[in-house]
Amino acid sequence: MNVIETYNLCKYYKEKRAVDNLNLGVPEGVIFGYLGPNGAGKTTTIRLLLNLAKPTSGYAVVLGENITKSRKYLKKVGFLPDVPNFYNYFTAREYLELLSEIIKVDKKRVDEVLEIVGLKSEKKRIGTFSRGMKQRLGIAQALLSDPQILILDEPASALDPQGRKEVLDLIASLRGEKTVFFSTHILSDVERICDRVGILKEGKLILNDTIDNLKKRFSKRILHIEVNNPQKLFEKLKKENWIESISFSDKNALLIRVKEIQRAQREIPRIIVEEDILIDRFEFLEPTLEDIFFEVIS
Q1: What 3-state class would DSSP assign to 50?
Q2: Which CATH code for domain 218-297?
Q3: Are β-strands 31-35 and 196-201 bridged in parallel, bridged antiparallel, or unpaired?
Q4: On the chain, which terminus has fewer CB atoms closer than 10 Å, C or N?
Q5: Which pLDDT band, with edges at 50, 70 and 90, does 104 fall under?
Q6: Distance from C-alpha of 253 to C-alpha of 61, rounded to nearest angstrom
Q7: What was the pLDDT predicted at 136?
Q8: Residues 25, 17: Cα–Cα separation, whole Å
């Protein structure tokens, strides 16, 4: 079951198509990485889903409600903006207790979310927090109403390695309990914790699938070969039109991206034999998300 679905969703600003005929589905309970370069339309999509902007055309259904006709679903959605703001003179507990009164949530929930984000024993003022601690507090704030969906806009983009690890581990811990939709341009973050990924380019969705399916779909396109004379093999292969790119991965090895798998399997061994080259290793590599990303956006 999809908890987020968009149907030809568009948002135009004068001549700029920030979101262009977006048809997206996000299943319940997954961690969904919404990936794209800066300016691809990720934040605009989030603004549309949160009813902070009106679609130019099309619509979305969130938790069974059409966002153009209802705002009731927002009570079941938690949100963390890319740069959250807090009252710095409060402690984390004081801040969340104030929010719990505003949104009429039992204060017992404050203890629960502080425990989840690892800030239960923190006594310092928010103004002294590191950026990573503030992001964790922001996630606690988003979780306070116990939402079904958590939407996070670039939650780890400005963090140091330790802060990024803390935030990503926290997001991963919510798998199966919440549907987490988070935007980012950091490929390693998505590959590390996401079940599913959507890739956006210039407002258009160009890919939407599970990480496992993507690796299967784009597998066997990258070939690693170790030989006794890599320079000779390089010179022979670089002229072939069925090879997309070829480079040295170390002094005796070539990394080859091919356009036609079967032809590569047939032609490369033939060339190796004809040129009297000795082969030590010949294998197709599983692509990384970075490999897939740059292939589909280019």
Answers
A1: coil
A2: 3.30.70
A3: parallel
A4: C
A5: very high
A6: 50
A7: 93
A8: 20
